[in-house]
Amino acid sequence: MTLRVLIAGAGVGGLALAQALRQAGIAVTVFERTPTVRADRRGYRININRVGGDALAACLPNELFRLYLATSNDEARARVAVFDHRMRPLYATDVGVDGTATPRDHTGVNRLTLRQIMLAGLEREVRFGQEAVGFEQTPDRVRVLLADGSTTEGDLLVGADGVSSAVRAGLLPHMRTRDTGVRCLWGRTTLRAALRDRLPAPLFDRVAVAVAPQGRIGIWGAYRARQPHREAAAAVTPPVSLDPEPDYLMWVLSGEPFAGEEQWRTASPAELHRYAVDATTGWHPGLHQAVREAVPEDCFVQNVRVADQPPTWPAGRVTLLGDAIHPMSPAGGTGANTALRDAAVLAGKLTAVLRPAGLVSAVAAYETEMRRYGFAAVAESLRYGERFAQAIRHAGKETHR
């Protein structure tokens, strides 16, 4: 009797795990709350570092990994450069690069594109519009409770259902996430030729941070795929269906003016867009134009939440990965990469046993390893964010001299 693994959540971590298990001959079913893969367009551009790239290589079939590379951002290095709000340079630093220049060192990918690639071949295994809301665990089985009242049984349940994980609430009811107080207003703008010509060149080969008066910060990053999506997808056997994705500029506004939580909880996308336009008045003309030309419906606010490591829990037939267990600050861009690492590590442990006998010991081995690197990543993201904030405050003083 082979294993049957149930996964709550079809984000990048859950889908990476499903791909790896399917290749190993392990039966897998994924339950996803949203009705389609296109229903949740938040996130836009995801940074993939060497850890995430190696995990994708381990989890995906070779054809899909090549498709990921073909549709990833046309850059081989990542730099963070800090400017004032008029795009006068303050300083630059390498981030997360080991000195080589191959695509897997550090790149970016459009989140929807990556999820569509990772869904290829899993059409029968992923059940959209079915939300896991709880579970019941017995010594030899686990039963998943779905929002529509139905249930499904398997040998293992993996909660990959994000920062508000229902699976975590059942497994670790005393674990809490905490609000860092950081608010990020996200948007994106299609890179039309007329706009592209007005934008500063550094936006196209690095992540650019713009420091403005009154404590406002803007973060900017371009997404330009190495190959057109449909052209790259048609070269895969069997062909993969990918939505076309025009080149775009992702932008994030943050800083002191985002401290009032209630204002951002109730604001509509159109109100957020108007705020962003007003907030960037007087900035570099290209940046301000990019914000003005953004589609208001693409604007949203993220409340940054993190988790402290809970006391060790006994391994069983339910486990967690990604933001469901170690949500972290986006500073440093390690959240998605750590989730992908979780998927690769857990898949490796499960593939080693393949059958229900030995399952709990495999889960225990995964959780021991995941707790070590996962919560180290949480701590590092907070340290990186604080170091970055200190540098920003220093740079902000420079803008007023």
Describe it.
- By secondary structure, the protein is an alpha/beta fold.
- It is built from twelve helices and 17 strands.
- It has helices at residues 12-23, 50-59, 62-70, 111-119, 166-171, 193-196, 229-234, 261-266, 269-279, 285-292, 335-353, 359-399; strands at 4-8, 27-32, 45-49, 79-84, 89-94, 106-110, 126-128, 132-137, 142-146, 151-154, 156-159, 177-190, 207-211, 216-223, 248-255, 300-307, 318-320.
- Helix 1 packs parallel to helix 4 (111-119).
Number of strands: 17
Low-confidence sequence ranges: 94-103
| Secondary structure: helix percent | 25-40%
Provide the residue-averaged pLDDT: 88
Global outline:
globular
User: In which order are the strands of the major sheet placed?
Assistant: 5-4-13-14-15-12-16
Briefly summarize what is shown.
The protein has 401 residues and is an alpha/beta fold. It has helices at residues 12-23, 50-59, 62-70, 111-119, 166-171, 193-196, 229-234, 261-266, 269-279, 285-292, 335-353, 359-399; strands spanning 4-8, 27-32, 45-49, 79-84, 89-94, 106-110, 126-128, 132-137, 142-146, 151-154, 156-159, 177-190, 207-211, 216-223, 248-255, 300-307, 318-320.
